[in-house]
Design a protein that fits this description.
461 residues; alpha/beta; Aspartate Aminotransferase, domain 1; 3 domains; seven-stranded mixed sheet; four-stranded antiparallel sheet; 14 helices; 15% strand; pyridoxal phosphate
Length: 461
Amino acid sequence: MSLMNNLSTSTISSSSSAFLAPISFDSRTQSVAFPLKNINVVKCITNPQEQQTAYKTKVSRNANIAKLQAGYLFPEVARRRAVHLLKYPNAQVISLGIGDTTEPIPDVITSAMAERSHGLSTLEGYSGYGAEQGEKALRSALASTFYGNLGIEEDDIFVSDGAKCDISRLQVVFGSNVTMAVQDPSYPAYVDSSVIMGQTGQFQKDVEKFANIEYMRCTPENGFFPDLSTVVRTDIIFFCSPNNPTGAAATREQLTRLVQFAKDNGSIIVYDSAYALYMSDDNPRSIFEIPGAKEVAIETASFSKYAGFTGVRLGWTVVPKQLLFSDGFPVAKDFNRIVCTCFNGACNISQAGGLACLSPEGLEAMQEVIGFYKENTKIIVETFNSLGFKVYGGQNAPYVWVHFPSRSSWDVFSEILEKTHIVTTPGSGFGPSGEGFIRVSAFGHRENVLEACRRFKQLYK
């Protein structure tokens, strides 16, 4: 059978001079003309491809994750920064948003990590899996350095890849049937991990809250410490001091009230002390400085903001033996089971760095780094004070909490980004009580902080 007989008459046309014609494309009819020697022109008309339907499994999505609103706060800030850079590709953007450290890790610490790393290439220095709870020497050093005379022993300490990771592991320990409370505003990982675990109801857009979470208002009016007489009883209380984002640090008297509140209600406090070494006031650096806290509290901490370990990843969680569930079973035993099931222990190179951090030279070097960021904080605080803003934080934490009354936090974030090319963090991302505030991070190179403050003054003078 000939070619002509194989083609539909609807797809061919003839021309006596076809063999002389050039190849052509008709965009209106989607037709292509091919010059064929000794035969008529064949015009092939393409049919639109049928839209392909993506294959779907029969596995339903985790309904709890579907409750989450938009993206996690900091990736959303990063996304908007990326969009801004597309719009202004030559802009010198300064990031004072996410709390990521910028200064180099002190040499005394990196040298210890390098030595441990090189040791892995020798028979004598090689090590594989370590104890999931952390190396004994590091646990012992943490106990003596941060919890001396507080009754915390090395086997109460679990070394990890960071406090944020441990927050999620703790949520797995608690399960989906507990109730929880958070400071409002607070670090968003507490709420999001609670939502994912199924501890909450749906998001209520009218009040910007998830159902079944107790939001403990922390505002300038109450000194950023909740009125516990109005707080509903929950199983778990997440509490951060010095606080991220407000920078407020709880006093000894306030933490004593919090511990007693937990005891009266049979609750467990998860105390985030990630910024304890930034404390300038004579406030507790550990919840375990409060009598009775070992019976009601867990403490998480990290080297991230002390030694620049945001990328190295090393932290720890303290779960005292005295902390018991309602049936008398030790919480530490369940946490140990989760750690052994979900985690293979912190990187041995990171742990070598952590041990170096706790040497006399390492502690001195960390204090120098912390002092540098605190000086940045002072510069930012003075800038906004000079512009007439009400400013909070900055004394006990590397964050400055700036009030923009009656304004949307995201609008202020967008205004600052658009007009100054500076990235901040909108306060509403930390909870409904953060609306009308922005958080400015002091983590940055000094020249960038000074330039950012110059731009702030130019915008708000």
